[in-house]
Design goal:
Blueprint: E1 5-11, H1 13-19, E2 23-28, H2 35-43, H3 51-54, E3 59-62, E4 65-67, E5 78-82
Length: 88
Amino acid sequence: MLKPMSVRILYFAALADRLGVRSEHVELPPGIVSVDGLRTHLAARGGVWADLGTFPKLRAAVNQRMAGGDAPIQAGDEVAFFPPVTGG
């Protein structure tokens, strides 16, 4: 039997503003094992959280390393979500 796992999630820039939260610890149900799975799980909260599923060009990092949607996540990981940053 798979056990739930806890991860720390960080939100940055416009995404954090939209969600109204900068970080949280989340207990994930069994079966959430990738960045995309986490993103889908969070978007299922509904309301502004659904934006995670549609936020354009959303980037992610796992333990401070850029990560694609298929990147694995494990208990104790830190996952950051942030929109692309522009500047000059």
